[in-house]
Amino acid sequence: MLKQSSSYLLLDASSRRIHVGLLRAGAWLSLETTHADSLTGLFTATEAVLQSSSLTLAEVDGFICCRGPGSLLGLRLAAMAITGWHGMAGGQGRVLFSYLSLEAQALSLLASGHAPGFHLCSDYRENQWNFLSVAANGATTIPCLIDRPAIEALPEPLYFIPQRQREQPTPANAQLLDYNLAALPQLIARLTLTAVPLGQPMALHEPAPTTFVKWSAERHRKPEALPHNAHPRPQTARLG
């Protein structure tokens, strides 16, 4: 799917460690990571990557962007930045691919020499985690949600990736893992890439639909008083 001769700008702000890199022919031309906030980190890292690669945004052939799971603010900022840069550079002949953060991290671990047969998780909501498993043969599962009883019953190794600022207690059987995509290019061909039409909003990963409870005036109305003659009278027991 990726052309060997093309240069791709990768943006990943799904976790506390932002990644911005330029890929070509299955290798990094340049890679910058930062723990700065996504509002500034994305743009300073992009500027540094382009300078070190002696390229401009107009010379980039396409974009690769993480669509989640992870920090919603970071994911949205990265998607908006790509849309803006694409328009500023003329908007012709570009491609955009999106991918999932847990799969990218799993492949990076495998590429760096980690033995298969492990699990990855990150926070979703209270007592729920985003979850991906890597089988003994190296095959990865589709990311899904897992609850506390199920995650605490998993065999080790289980790795927890900090993605959001506010988190619930880490599962007791999980090891903290700093998000790191340095080795990703070695297995980039295995990464599931989804083509996204540039100029259209990129759909972010959402493992479960968000539900909202509609406010109802009826639900919050003060109960009406019953008429005087409608109140039940206490019954008196007669003695004898």
Question: How do you describe this structure in short?
Answer:
The chain has 5 helices and 11 strands.
List keywords for this structure.
single chain; 240 residues; alpha/beta; 6-stranded mixed sheet; 5-stranded mixed sheet; 5 helices; 24% strand
Profile the largest sheet: 6 strands, mixed
Radius of gyration over all CA atoms, rounded: 25 Å
Calculate the terminal CA-CA distance, rounded to whole Å: 96 Å
Biggest sheet, spatial arrangement of strands: 3-2-1-4-5-11
- Stretches where pLDDT falls below 50 for ≥5 residues? 219-223, 225-240
Return the string of H and E elements. EEEHEHEHEEEHEEEH
Mean pLDDT: 87
Count of strand segments: 11
Structural class: alpha/beta
Taken as a percent bin, the fraction of beta residues is: 15-25%
Count of helical regions: 5
Q: Residue share in helices? A: 10-25%
Cα shape: globular
Itemize the secondary structure elements and their pairings.
Elements: E1 8-12, E2 18-24, E3 27-34, H1 38-53, E4 62-66, H2 72-88, E5 95-99, H3 101-111, E6 118-125, E7 128-134, E8 144-147, H4 148-152, E9 158-160, E10 174-176, E11 194-195, H5 217-220
Parallel strand pairs: 1-4, 4-5, 6-9, 9-10
Antiparallel strand pairs: 1-2, 2-3, 5-11, 6-7, 7-8
